[in-house]
Design a protein that fits this description.
heterodimer, A: alpha+beta, Purple Acid Phosphatase, chain A, domain 2, 5'-nucleotidase,  domain 2, Outer membrane phospholipase (ompla), Chain C, 3 domains, 12-stranded antiparallel beta barrel, 6-stranded mixed beta sheet, 18 helices, 24% helix, disordered N terminus, B: mainly alpha, 96% helix, 0% strand, flat
Chain lengths: 727, 242
């Protein structure tokens, strides 16, 4: 650059040995020029230009074959084109706009080393750290950038309150000093290990950039150029907030689209511009006028092509690249599996493998985590390296049905398996039910952003690639023709619903004093509970629910409610609407009363029906009191209805009906009917705690006696509900 | 044991059972690792990545180093070879230079001798040349005089011949005029002969046409005669029969 500066006459250097030979006229002209420089420098410096060569989204696209690499390797073609450009039309600075290191298999194999070599050999002054670059690990990038002439730029990746990488570089061009600041996109996802160990985070605060601009200004920078990986919208905001920025060069994570329209350049009021680099199979040449105000005079894209050259840097890099390729090929010969039937591995396959390995109901991974690949026979590690496009660890966590539905609704760019037609393992997704999910860190991050909350997770500390490798070495589930068997796995759920109360009133009074109105006359103690535990074992076709139920209220020595019920319900999951069932139910007292423990058994079978809000059972069977006293069996019809209507997000109306209409065995026309109707309003305070007001109405009618027993109760209770998925 | 006595035990039992269920449920949920273990695992992952990078990069650099060392040693040996070649060439050149110097001095001497000899020879030749020049000038004068005499003689002879030739030319011209006149006369005669030939040819053709007419008349007479003869014979034949 110094030479070009000399050519353009911006720096005047006089050789002392030649000075003596200069004529008086030359001396005079120098004097005149010096005077002009002092009096009107603007005119002298008018026409100062800065030529930039820019690349973006190179993605480490090295080929993996060393044969004829000069003509075939896209990166060597680019290198040749850059060298040719420099010879034919020299430029001042080469900059890269990010996403240079990932996901090219060779670049990933070298952890970015070969890419940083590329930049060093071909005089790249700086590269912006972008979202995909950080996939290689920031510590690796930091290590690689050490001692190199190519700087990694990012003003907003922070560790210990200071940037991890250089926030800027400066370039002096004659009288002008230009500062280039690297602004990384917030799309960047740091590896969880680095987050945990180094407390690395992404600073989205614009003040950070503003402070850097001020620092550059105070150090004498005349012009500021932002190298940005942000979208157009964010870049416009950046320009609005930072008026000192003369130009934004956007690349890396930026799609280069303004309102979905590809736009390579947007000019703002005052001559400031945003230019976007959308193509990546060549380089851009940007000509900038550095006159009174920095302005872009032209931007031209030049596609890479094979140009024979004998440049020493090229030869040196080509030799090193060949060595990396050799190592890659050697390491790629490691056998992962043998005699594998022909299979096509896709994102969906990988997600199903995660479901298989972690026994989760759902798997969510990013689209294009896997480059679709055919595997058969002997599988080498090179195939894995070429196939993988995601190196983040795998997390397992739990999402509620409503959260899952929200994720499904925003699933663009995600691949979700385990959910078919809105069902998981053949059952509709229940909003309140928790489901186990397995994701890569990147997909988990996306899920958190969709749900706008942090989700507790377990880290497997294995990447998707390592999971597939382990699978190839052990279960080989990857070779399964279908992953439907995952839905046949049995799972166990425990739902606990506890509702308890205790009321003790102490009354002390004289013998003659009257009880004040509305106050108890005597001391009493009342306590009670309505506790239910549902233990469910199920798979796609079968569901078995064991339900212990206690409904007990006691006041002093008097039992107001004294029910202990055990239910065993089997349901065959025939289809979404109708399911056959068989139910065994035993009712007894919780506490023996007057030395007796009557036991009532009910055996019914029938059909269950399901809709979005209302479930029901309609069956037939018998009811028999087994002891205290034993009575003949009553054959009858069972009707159960269970409805739940949400009124507002946290408030729901619940309706339950349980009836059994029967007649005595051997006799006819003597009907006995038992029915219980519950109406409730349930308010959820949080996911496990709620308050409900219930009205229960019970009737037992005997035609034989032509009498009935009625009972109604109004309850206000605090309910504790929780559920556990055991496997 | 009555009901009232059993109730507290039952409550305890139920409470204990609930607690047990809750505890057992929480215990079967995979226990989360503590922050220290998490941190260790994270450090392990980072170290593993760093180590892999270092190993791979080291392996490439090592191989590159070996290659460069190999190239370096081969270049060094080539330098040594070139140096020894240079030394031997230097020695050879030194010998050659001394030999050439000797040769040069001897040649220098030879040149001096030859220069001397040449100057002597040049003197001799110069003398010879001057004598030859004298001889040649006298010879040239003689030959010049001889040529002049011969030229005068030939001029005289040419004049005589020219006079003779002029007379003959006049005589021949007269003969030509006479011959031309004869030719003209002969031509006139020839023309008259030609007209006579044409006249004779006309007469001949007339005679031939007359001859033809006569021949035709002859043939018609002959045919008449024949017919007459036939009639005659016919008449003669008829007469005996009567």
């Amino acid at each position: 650059m110094r030479n070009r500066e000399n050519k353009s006459g911006l720096q005047i250097r006089v050789n002392p040995q030649r000075k003596k030979r200069k004529s008086t006229a030359e001396g005079l002209s120098l004097l005149v020029l010096s005077a002009m420089l002092f009096l009107c420098p603007e005119r002298i410096f008018a026409g100062t230009k800065l030529s930039l060569v820019l690349t973006s989204n190179l993605q480490g696209r090295f080929s993996t074959e060393a044969e004829a690499q000069d003509e075939k390797d896209p990166m060597l073609l680019l290198a040749g084109s850059l060298i040719d450009e420099k010879k034919r039309n020299p430029y001042d600075l080469y900059l890269d706009l990010g996403n240079a290191f990932y996901p090219g298999p060779l670049s990933r194999y070298s952890y970015g080393s070969v890419m940083i070599d590329f930049f060093s050999y071909f005089d790249c002054a700086a590269t912006l750290v972008s979202s995909r670059d950080v996939s290689l690990g920031l510590t690796n990038l930091e290590f690689l950038s050490g001692g190199r002439k190519t700087k990694l730029l990012s003003v907003n990746i922070i560790r210990d309150e200071s940037p991890v990488f250089s926030p800027y570089i400066t370039v002096t061009r004659g009288r002008k000093k230009i500062g280039f600041i690297g602004v990384t996109s917030s799309e960047s996802l740091f590896d969880i290990a680095e987050k945990k160990v180094f407390k690395i985070y992404f600073n989205e605060n614009l003040e950070n950039i503003k402070n850097t601009v001020s620092e550059l200004r105070s150090s004498g920078c005349t012009d500021i150029i932002l190298l940005s990986g942000l979208s157009y919208r964010n870049n416009l905001e950046l320009m609005q907030e930072i008026p000192e920025a003369d130009l934004v060069i956007s690349g890396g994570d930026s799609s280069g689209r303004l309102f979905s329209v590809p736009s390579s350049r947007v000019d703002l009021q005052g001559g400031r511009s945003i230019v976007s680099l959308a193509k990546n199979d060549g380089f851009y040449r940007l000509e900038i006028d550095l006159d009174d105000r920095l302005t872009v005079s032209s931007m031209v894209f030049k596609k890479s092509s094979y140009i024979k050259n004998s440049d020493r840097s090229y030869a040196g890099f080509s030799d090193r690249l060949a060595l990396w390729k050799k190592k890659f090929t050697e390491d790629g010969k490691r056998i992962m599996a043998e005699n594998l039937p022909a299979i096509s591995v896709t994102d969906k396959t990988a997600a199903d493998i995660l479901r298989h390995r972690h026994r989760t109901e759902v798997a969510i991974i990013d689209r294009f985590s896997i480059y679709p690949h055919e595997l058969h026979g002997t599988v080498y590690s090179s195939a894995m390296a070429k196939m993988m496009n995601n190196d983040y660890p795998v997390f397992t966590y739990r999402l509620s049905g409503s959260e899952l539905n929200m994720v499904i609704g925003n699933s663009e760019g995600l691949v979700i398996t385990g959910i078919r037609e809105g069902k998981i393992q053949g059952y509709p997704i229940a909003d309140t039910r928790k489901y186990t999910v397995c994701s890569t860190q990147s997909a988990y991050d996306r899920v958190c952003r969709i749900l706008r909350k942090h989700i507790e997770y377990d880290n497997t500390w294995k990447t998707l690639g390592e999971e597939i490798e382990d699978d190839l070495k052990t279960d080989k589930s990857i070779a399964s023709e279908s992953f439907d068997y995952l839905d046949d796995r049995f799972r166990m759920l425990i739902d606990i619903s506890l509702s308890n109360f205790y009321d003790r009133s102490d009354v002390e009074r004289g013998d003659s004093i009257d009880t004040p109105p509305g106050k108890p006359a005597e001391t009493y103690r009342r306590w009670g509970m309505e506790n239910t535990v549902n233990i469910t074992i199920y798979n796609r076709k079968h569901q078995l629910i064991l339900t212990p139920y206690i409904y007990f209220i006691r006041q002093d020595d008097e039992y107001l409610q004294n029910l202990l019920r055990g239910t065993l319900l089997y349901t065959y999951n025939l289809n979404s609407f109708f399911k056959p069932y068989h139910k065994s139910q035993i009712d007894t007292v919780f506490v023996e009363y007057e030395g007796k423990r009557p036991v009532l058994a009910r055996e019914t079978a029938g059909i269950s029906f399901f809709s979005e809000r209302v479930n029901g059972k309609f069956g037939a069977g018998f009811e028999k009191q087994l002891k205290d006293p034993e009575t003949p069996a009553l054959y009858g019809i069972e009707t159960i209805v269970d409805a739940n209507f949400p009124l507002v997000p946290q408030l729901a109306y619940i309706f339950r009906l349980d009836s059994f209409i029967s007649s005595v065995e051997g006799e006819s026309a003597e009907i006995k009917a038992r029915a219980e109707i519950t109406n409730a309003l349930s308010l959820n305070i949080n996911s496990i705690l709620g308050v409900s007001i219930k009205h229960k109405w019970f009737i037992f009618y005997s035609e034989e006696l032509e009498e009935s027993y009625r009972y109604s109760q109004m309850l206000l209770s605090v309910d504790l509900k929780t559920d556990f998925k055991l496997f | 044991m009555n009901t009232a006595q059993r109730t507290p035990l039952l409550i305890k039992f139920i409470t204990a059972l609930s607690a047990f269920i809750l505890l057992s449920c929480t215990s079967v949920i995979p226990r989360k690792e503590g922050p220290v273990e998490e941190r260790l695992r994270a450090e392990n992952r980072i170290m593993k990545q760093n180590l892999t990078l270092a190993i791979r990069e080291n392996s490439v650099f090592k191989e590159e180093n070996i290659r460069i060392r190999g190239e370096n040693s081969s270049l060094k040996s080539r330098i040594r070879l070139l140096k020894s070649e240079m030394e031997s060439l230097n020695k050879k050149h030194a010998v050659d230079i001394s030999l050439l110097a000797e040769k040069y001095s001897s040649l220098q001497k030879q040149k001096e001798i030859m220069d001397r000899e040449n100057s002597q020879k040049i003197d001799e030749l110069t003398k010879k040349n001057s004598s030859l020049e004298d001889k040649l000038s006298s010879e040239i004068a003689r030959l010049t005089k001889e040529m002049r005499d011969r030229e005068e003689k030939s001029n005289r002879e040419r004049l005589e011949l020219e006079t003779g030739f002029t007379g003959k030319e006049l005589e021949y011209r007269r003969e030509i005029a006479e011959l031309k006149e004869k030719i003209l006369t002969t031509g006139t005669e020839l023309e008259s002969l030609k007209s006579r030939i044409t006249e004779y040819e006309t007469k001949l053709s007339d005679a031939e046409s007359e001859k033809k007419r006569l021949a035709d008349m002859n043939s018609s007479l002959n045919s008449e005669i024949k017919s007459l003869k036939k009639e005659t014979e016919k008449i003669s034949d008829e007469k005996p029969g009567k």
